[in-house]
Automatic annotation (TrEMBL):
Domain of life: Bacteria
Signal peptide extent: none
Keyword Metal-binding set for record: no
Species classification: Bacteria, Pseudomonadati, Pseudomonadota, Alphaproteobacteria, Sphingomonadales
UniProt entry keywords in alphabetical sequence: Oxidoreductase
Record's protein name: FAD-binding oxidoreductase
Keyword presence, Oxidoreductase: yes
Residue ranges of domain FAD dependent oxidoreductase in the record: 3-346
Length: 384
């Protein structure tokens, strides 16, 4: 019998497991054969202050030190590399960019306004001028994260502590016992533990239903990415991560190619997400609208699910109606950049240790992440 069973081998489950394995025996159960197969493995893997609300930015800020100076022995390669980010505004989206600048400036004093000339110097293919980008906000502190290195390094920590990770184990049944929880896989394997951590991503509410626990309103939303080649002979390695203030486009240079998204949020069921033709075409269209780049072909395409609760803040905490049932869900598109903070929160809440130092000062306390907020009608008023 383990002390803790964690359902889900994505970044949320593995980072929490690594922290908890310092104190107790942990078993991670992942449905797929590979860790991080769904959301974590399909993210653009970036840390920046341009997405989320105040609570998400606070979690991101707290997590930055982990990525900027990773713990000794955690990984043999760098977890992050600096990549600046710019947020473009046309005349009609300037109010949105002004609001975004104010929010970002609460967490970093590095952000500043730039005009068309500097936009073009940073990324010469961005369309500027009449009807196009007239101003932008530059954040030079963006970090491109190595998602695979993160997942595998947290997994090594779990195993090195004597805990275990099981893959290819789809859950068929969950039941409360007198001593905790029992989980049975479709193959008939059974595991028990005092505490059950639901880190199942888009499947979080379904796992809760199997356990007889009321859902908290998770909504998976599909996000589409295409990969295109730059014009022959064009070096894109120094280009920034480019976003539109209108929230309908981004592009990121990666390994000599360009990742592009229409920043879609299409409601979907928990599934192995696949890109739809319309969203793929929209991504290509938006690239041609915001830049001078043609799209003669699409080299690759994929989609992933980003799951949100009502207030779009990652959720961690025990369910008040189900003793020993712990929620760790709703990471949205922020799971990688907030993982260090969320793992420290899980460690504090499960072991009864002190709240992570410095998080309160960043505007994140237990009230911001507790699942209770989603059950008492106050989700929309917390951490906005």
């Amino acid at each position: 019998m383990s002390d803790v069973l964690i359902l889900g081998g994505g970044i949320a489950g593995l980072s929490a497991a690594a922290h908890l394995a310092r104190h107790m025996r942990v078993t991670v159960i992942e449905a797929e054969d590979a860790l991080g197969y769904h959301s974590s493995g399909r993210s653009v893997s970036f840390s920046h202050y341009g997405i989320g609300n105040a609570a998400v930015r606070g979690l991101t800020a707290w997590s930055r030190s982990f990525y900027e100076a990773q713990p000794a022995g955690f990984c043999d390669t760098p977890l992050a590399r600096p990549v600046p980010t710019i947020y473009l505004a046309r005349e009609e989206t300037l109010p949105a960019l002004e609001a975004l600048h104010a929010e970002m400036a609460r967490f970093t004093d590095a952000v500043r306004w730039i005009g068309p000339a500097e936009i073009e110097a940073l990324c010469p293919v961005v369309r500027t001028g009449a009807g196009q980008a007239v101003k932008a906000v530059l954040d030079p502190t963006g970090l491109k994260l190595d998602a695979d290195a993160l997942l595998q390094s947290f997994a090594r920590q779990v195993r090195a502590a004597g805990s275990e990770i099981l893959t290819g184990q789809r859950i068929a049944a969950i039941e409360a016992t007198g001593e905790g929880w029992r989980v049975r896989s479709e193959g008939g394997e059974s595991r028990t533990a005092r505490i059950l951590v639901n880190a199942a991503g888009a499947w979080g509410d379904r796992m809760a239903a199997l356990a007889g626990v009321a859902p908290i309103g998770l909504q998976p939303k599909r996000r589409t990415i295409i990969v295109v080649d730059p014009p022959a002979g064009t070096d894109v390695s120094a280009w920034p991560f480019v976003h539109s203030a209108g929230g309908d486009f981004y592009m990121l240079p990666e390994a000599g190619q360009i990742l592009v998204s229409p920043v879609d949020e299409v409601e979907d069921d928990p599934c192995d997400a696949r890109p739809e033709d319309y969203d793929v075409a929209l991504a290509a269209h938006q690239l041609e609208q915001y830049t001078t780049l043609p799209v003669p072909r699409i080299a690759h395409r994929w989609a992933g699910l980003r799951s949100f609760v009502a207030d779009r803040v990652p959720t961690a905490g025990f369910d008040r109606e189900a003793p020993g049932f712990f929620w760790l869900v709703g990471q949205g598109g922020y799971g990688l950049q907030t993982a260090p903070a969320m793992a420290a929160i899980v460690e504090a809440l499960i072991t009864g240790s002190a709240w992570p130092e410095g998080l309160d000062a960043l505007g994140v306390g237990p009230a911001q992440v507790t699942p209770d907020r989603l059950r008492n009608g106050s989700a929309h008023s917390v951490a906005t």
